[in-house]
Amino acid sequence: MDHLGENLKKVLLAGIGVVATTAEKSKELLDEMVEKGELTVEQAKTLNQELKHTIKKTVKENNDGEG
């Protein structure tokens, strides 16, 4: 049973890493779009906040479904 717990822990940590990487990459993409004039700074901030909210919501829903 401990082996299952360790595997679950590894999967959760990997998921957290993916979420962090996704958030970081999306911020980089938004910053590039602002530099190119494709977005305003305010639009980028809004999109970044919405993305963070969506990611948190998705993680919470997935964690609630596991228990």
What does this structure look like?
The protein starts with a helix and ends with a helix. Helices cover 90% and strands 0% of the residues. Helix 1 (2-35) runs antiparallel to helix 2. It has helices at 2-35, 41-66. It has a domain at 34-67.
List keywords for this structure.
67 residues; mainly alpha; 2 helices
Q: How many strands, what sense, and barrel or not for the largest sheet?
A: none
Beta fraction: under 5%
Bulk shape: elongated
- Number of distinct helices: 2
Summarize the structure.
The chain has helices at 2-35, 41-66. It is an all-alpha fold.
Describe the SSE topology:
Blueprint: H1 2-35, H2 41-66
